[in-house]
Design goal:
By secondary structure, chain A is mostly helical. Chain A is built from 17 helices and 2 strands. Classes of the chains: A mainly alpha (about 425), B mainly alpha (about 300).
Chain lengths: ~425, ~300
């Protein structure tokens, strides 16, 4: 393969053929144990079954696929180098280009907001669309919360789902055991999750990079194992059911009865869709508040401290910053936002169990932040759309959807290693008196 | 006392398996600084290859247990290292030199891919194989409890010790080992000295996969059941072992594996078995609080 890259011109057909044969050989070796052979249960004992035609098809696909892809990529590469040569020293205008790029992004952001606001009106009778959009928004909110920890503060957190779980269980327990309402429980649950963030943050302060990653992963598993096994507290694997739904300023979404309901108060005909739409706008409002909160925080000293710490922790220490407080604040705030999302999740589902809070969930939230482009708020929205809609669209071939999901994660990362909207610009930039940065 | 001894044996066996998988994590982390999340799934793939292999041999009428074991071990190591190579080539090499998180995400994607690939091609049900190595040595009994050293446990420990000594020799004494260690220290400088860095990294992945393959075959023989989800749990335990011992340190990975195996065995026997994962991770957090770079890891010296 290296010969292909180094060759001055296009590779000869013989080289292409040899390359494709190599790929086909690897495909054969990979395919024999997994595709060629399988074991089937026959009367209690296993028996080996073979699938040679499928294997042959797989190897042939690898061979011809490689030939075609290689050809297309070489063409693209050639065209790109030609273009780069033609444009020559056009790099001078890149700064203004990135500025207009930023303007376009702002426009796209407002457009997305407009679509989000209008969506339930357009699809008022389509419960599925509004439900899916609600799920997307939950992930957007989780992504924005994790973005504080990973994107801004640069602390790799693989157990973010723990905070989501703590938020969800806080609301579930407060409402089912003590009869608290959604709006009463929301701030309390946020405070509880924030303190969990501190509990996790405190022992891990000295850890760096991937040590931190594994500790957060462990923390997530600890929370999940406790939720599964401490049946008296959390209901164990059965979870907690019949969690009260949020009400509209005290007006429940119920069929008309003795007490005033949302429908009767506004003189509307009762329909279950009202609650769905209300939940949608609720999470939209929560997510937008989160976004506003985070973008504002980035301009405050604490937000600038996060970004500074992400770039260089030692320099921060040398400048006299209290790195401990900076890290803990990032953990606590990120956790709190995840907790809010959890409260909403519990209120929306009406039923929660530890199954919703596995490591896979953490991985998906992290993938949303990284795929979107670390630190980019709009990128999180795009990545949530991709990662939630992809499995939804794949429902027709349900068996393959997680396979495609994994493949898509790899391909997007290879295509755009810095994320779909890579933007690692500091929020504030020092403008040199003469130069004008 | 008898129970404690039995748990010691069980814990060491389990720890040996974790240690073998942990070495794959630690080597990959040492050489390219990434958590290879798909490593646990590579181990799972090897366990499935072992199931197919044992079933095929039994179907062909190979009755000799040692012959079957050796054949399956070799075949599984061969195919699994091809998987290790392919994973690195497709998902990680294109991302070399990009941000630290990009390979992590593609590794998570690869892990999801492998799990679902195996689920699709091999079925989602648990695969049992008939017990192969039954029996064992009864050491002694007291209070009606017999301490038993199963043959499969002896096999696991012996194979692990043999592999570890061979591996240590490979890394410390051979030319490949020197290349591998020099890539760990400084990839650019190694490349300047005329060493094919890409090849060394590929070989590292293949070696890690080969060790995971041995662990996979051993576990198949020991427990007799395999499903597509075993990779995840074993993977995070083994990675925890690698971190506990100090990422990048080979003896550390083995030590971490043994410690985690022992914690699990003793915790399950004397305290609550369902909380053994909580114990494992709590001890990890405690150790890292006092030794942030693991038990045998070198403290990171930061240069500005």
């Amino acid at each position: 393969m290296s010969a292909l890259v180094s060759a001055a011109g296009a590779p000869t057909p013989a080289e292409r053929f040899r390359d494709a044969v190599g790929v086909a050989l690897v495909a054969l070796l990979l395919g024999v144990p997994m595709i060629g052979l399988t074991t089937v249960d026959q009367g209690g004992a296993l028996r080996v079954a073979t699938r040679w035609p499928t294997l042959l098809a797989f190897v042939a696909t690898a061979f011809f696929g490689r030939l075609v892809l290689r050809f297309v990529f070489d063409r693209l590469k050639k065209r790109r180098t030609a273009l780069e040569r033609a444009s020559g020293a056009a790099g001078a205008g890149s700064h203004s280009a990135s500025k207009s790029h930023g303007k376009i992004l702002v426009l796209v952001g407002w457009l997305a907001l407009g679509i989000a606001l209008a969506l339930p009106v357009v699809y008022a009778d389509n419960r599925y669309v509004v439900d899916t959009a609600t799920t997307v928004l939950i992930y957007v909110m989780l992504g924005w919360g994790l973005n504080v920890v990973v994107g801004l503060a640069g602390l790799l957190d693989l157990g973010y789902v723990a905070f989501y779980a703590v938020g969800a269980y806080s609301y579930a327990l407060l409402s089912t055991q003590f009869g608290w309402g959604f709006w009463q429980a929301l701030p309390v649950a946020g405070a509880i999750t924030a303190s969990f963030g501190l509990i996790l943050g405190w022992p891990t302060l000295r850890l760096r990079g991937d040590y931190l990653a594994i500790v957060t992963l462990g923390f997530g598993e600890i929370i999940r194992v406790i939720l599964v096994n401490w049946t008296a507290f959390s209901g164990g694997p059965n979870g907690i059911a019949s969690i009260p739904r949020p009400s509209f300023f005290g007006l429940p979404f119920k069929p008309p009865g003795d007490t005033p309901t949302f429908a009767s108060f506004f003189g509307l005909e009762y329909s279950p869709a009202q609650r769905i739409v209300f939940l949608y706008y609720l999470i939209l409002a929560l997510a937008l508040l989160t976004n506003l909160f985070v973008t504002r925080l980035r301009r405050l000293p604490v937000g600038r401290a996060w970004e500074a710490m992400r770039e260089d922790e030692i320099a921060c220490k040398a400048m006299g910053m209290n790195v401990t407080n900076v890290k803990l604040s990032a953990f606590a705030l990120g956790a709190m936002l995840g907790g809010f999302a959890g409260v909403f999740f519990a209120a929306r589902q009406g039923f929660i169990s530890p199954e919703s809070f596995t490591f896979n969930e953490s991985a998906i939230i992290l993938a949303i932040v990284v795929l979107g482009g670390m630190g980019s708020q709009l990128g999180v929205v795009l990545a949530s759309l991709v990662l939630v809609l992809l499995p939804e669209l794949g429902r027709d071939f349900a068996e393959y959807r997680m396979l495609l999901f994994g493949t898509a994660m790899i391909l997007i990362m290879i295509w755009k290693p810095a994320g779909i909207l890579s933007q690692r610009e500091p929020t504030l930039r020092y403008a040199a008196p003469g130069g004008g940065a | 006392m008898a129970l404690a001894l039995q748990q010691l044996i069980n814990g060491l066996t389990l720890g040996a398996v974790y240690g073998l998988i942990a070495i794959g994590y630690t080597m990959v982390y040492g050489i390219i600084g990434m958590i290879n999340f798909a490593h646990g799934d590579i181990y799972m793939v090897s366990a499935f290859i072992a199931v197919s292999g044992f079933t095929l041999l039994a179907g062909l009428g190979v009755g000799s247990v040692p012959l079957a074991l050796v054949t399956v071990l070799l075949v599984s190591v061969l195919f699994t290292s091809v998987y290790g190579w392919a994973v690195e080539r497709t998902a990680y090499r294109p991302l070399r030199g990009s941000t630290r998180l990009a390979p992590l995400i593609s590794a998570i994607g690869m892990s999801i891919f492998l799990q679902n690939m195996v689920q699709l091609t091999q079925g989602a049900r648990v695969k049992p194989i008939p017990p192969m190595l039954t029996g064992g040595i009864d050491l002694f009994s007291s209070d009606g409890f017999t301490v038993r050293l199963a043959y499969s446990q002896i096999l696991i420990v012996v194979v692990t010790v043999a592999l570890m000594s061979g591996f240590t020799w490979l890394i410390t004494k051979t030319s490949f080992g020197r290349q591998q260690r020099s890539c760990e220290q400084d990839r650019t400088m190694t490349a300047l000295l005329g060493i094919d860095v890409d090849r060394t990294i590929s070989l590292t992945f293949m070696l890690g996969a080969a060790l995971a393959a041995v662990a996979g075959v051993m576990v198949t023989v020991y427990y007799g059941v395999v499903d597509f989800y075993i990779g995840f749990v074993a993977g995070i335990k083994a990675f925890t072992a690698a971190v506990l011992g100090g990422v990048g340190s080979l003896p550390g990975a083995m030590l971490g594996g043994l410690i985690i195996g022992l914690i699990e065995a003793f915790w399950s026997a004397y305290l609550a078995a369902e909380y053994k994962d909580v114990a494992t991770f709590s001890i990890l957090i405690l150790v890292l609080m006092f030794r942030p770079s693991g038990l045998l890891g070198r403290p990171e010296v930061e240069k500005v």
